[in-house]
Amino acid sequence: MNQTTCALSFKFAESELISSVNHILTSPVEYLKGVGPQRAELLKKELNIFTFRDLLEHFPYRHIDKTRISPIGEIKPQFDPLGGQPFVQVAGNLHSLELIGQKAGKRLVATLRDKSGEMELTWFQGINWVQKSLEIGQAYLVYGRVGFYQGQAQIVHPEFEIYTPSKADGKDFLEPVYPTTEKLKARGLGGRQLAKLSFTLFTMLTERDVPENIPEPVLKQLDLVNRFQAYKQIHFPSSVSQHESAVKRLKFEEFFIAQLRMGLLRSERHRYSKGVVFDKVGDVFNTFYKDHLPFELTNAQKRVLREIRTDTAKGHQMNRLLQGDVGSGKTIVALLTMLLAVDNGYQACLMAPTEILAQQHFATLSRLLSNMDVPVELLTGSVKAKPRKIILQALADGSLPILVGTHAVIEDVVQFKNLGIVIIDEQHRFGVAQRAKLWGKAKVPPHVLVMTATPIPRTLAMTAYGDLDYSVIDELPPGRQPITTVHRYESQRSKVMDFIRAEIEKGRQIYIIFPLIEESAKLDYENLMKGYENVKAYFPEPKYWISMVHGRQPHEQKELNMKRFKEKDTQILVSTTVIEVGVDVPNASVMVIESTEKFGLSQLHQLRGRVGRGAEKSYCILLSGSKLGNDAKERINIMVSTQNGFEIAEKDLELRGPGDIAGTRQSGELNFKLASLVQDRDLLDLARNLAADILEKDPELGSAENLQLKQFLRQEKGKLAWSKIS
Ligand code: ADP
Ligand code: MG
Questions:
Q1: Structural domain range at position 297
Q2: Of 65, 223, 288, 620, which is least packed with CB atoms within 10 Å of its CB?
Q3: What distances in angstroms separate CA 495 from CA 505, 511, 536, one per listed residue?
Q4: CA 330–ligand 2 middle distance (angstroms)
Q5: Distance 630 CA to ligand 2 centre (A)
Q6: Do residues 428 and 517 share a domain?
Q7: pLDDT reading at 83 higher than 60
């Protein structure tokens, strides 16, 4: 554990550690009556259930409401605006069972009859097993999504079981059904049989074993059921509304606890971490600002700089995430921040994820600083031994104030005299371990500014990065021409090529991007080659020159091909998505995306951001096949209709959930068991605000009403990996 993480650990005095560890919940599951060693083995393997607690947290995915059996004759086709079909539960006698069709069309069709009518049940898979399990004339309880085919109600792959009316009728209760697996079913632990285990577990538990962790006032304000009740009722509710209250309570708890953890880390950093102090704005900053800044900063850039200045002046370590859409002007903010460090006698380091990006930053900074006496150097893997030695020396003796680099910067031999700030561009390519390594380079941890161009919806950012401070550049520099985005089908390719030719005639350059799907790298490669030949046929040498960049090329060749495009040696760049994020070729005015349907939204947005950087009117052409799925259509529509990265990120979240965005931060923080960042946003907002309130009023959680909460966090602390801290 390094000093940073130490400073961040909870400030709990040992005396406050009142022992209320729940021994019973930590018991191995095999000790539960009805389990035993063999089933325990399977529960572990199949469902990751090791302890009583795991079983408690294995929630049913639905409940059978035995009081609600629909008469078959009354099931009507329903218009469902969401496109889903309603679930129904019916009970009837199996009237026929027949195997129909051949080979791929083979299916098992049964008819089920009750007093009111008849419906079809169909299976395409597991036919043998189903056929063996069903018996004509027997009564079954059947559950599934009902659909209508030629006016006939039917359920495909329904759940079924033998129906014994006496067992259920008239009783008002909801029977839980749990996620399970085939292997467990074979051992008598099917979805409904698991309920017996939960039931046994609850006979052993009391409120003391599942103590409350949400402060009383919050429970009251939101009218939440207490924790023990919530667990009980999510498994065994006596009504639908009781189940809903339980779910709401537990979802809220997930959000609330996550927000508190993050908030605590953040506020502890604010209060206890040591940081270098940038409290002067001196000559370097002022001279640059007055005499060399090539444009007026946008208001958003000014605001972010103020936030950074305030934050770095306090004597605590800054740990800030800076979001700004592609082209919003993060580089100049980075530079001004570094100059601030220099004015205060510290060194600054800007890290980029790739060599090309590092070179680009180096060129930009060198140009901007060309009339100032502030040395900048570039350190990457390809810097030769001799100049490298000189750079290392200058870093160690403090004569080099600003370094731009790739991860080569974090090698052990690189020692700074007094590193004051590290700025990381496109953070998601940097691992946490790499960052931690940078801290180690200073006695007092340097400030950290992480810049990302992958827009993350605000809610998500606050959740995933709640332990960091957060700034956003939400405004583009003035005078940007909007990029015209159009969707074209494959069949219109030659028109597209004509358009490209006309742009090239005007002196512009073109990107043509092919998809890259890791799982089928070979196929992608072949596609790319075919595409390249195709483009070449339209644009033959020597009139036209094409660069091609792809993942299978040796590093040097990739760099060389990129360089040729950058230097206008070639007019067209054909590439897979290896095209470096953030690469800047202002003269490129057309982005053609091949097989657009295979790209995700945020990827498309990033790619489009490669054009529209110069003074020329720019275009993004989304080529696709003629058959498009709904999601692909939606993505294309969004791309055509907006250029706002945050709007796109919101849509992406709705379409695909947080998974992809979560990938930008390897953390379990976004994996909520019950709560959904998309559907439960209101609850998330509530949780965030309430957590923030509590921390503001009682940052140490020392008050009596927060005691349970504090104990809970203390006990759960072991579960929180420190590596999640930036
Ligand atoms: P990104 O946020 O994507 O890293 P850059 O820092 O590369 O964006 O800036 C994109 C372009 O906008 C650059 O050419 C930069 O010089 C220019 N730029 C940045 N800020 C301003 C501004 N306030 N006014 C005009 N141009 C700006
Ligand atoms: Mg950038």
A1: 283-473
A2: 223
A3: 15, 16, 16
A4: 6
A5: 33
A6: no
A7: no
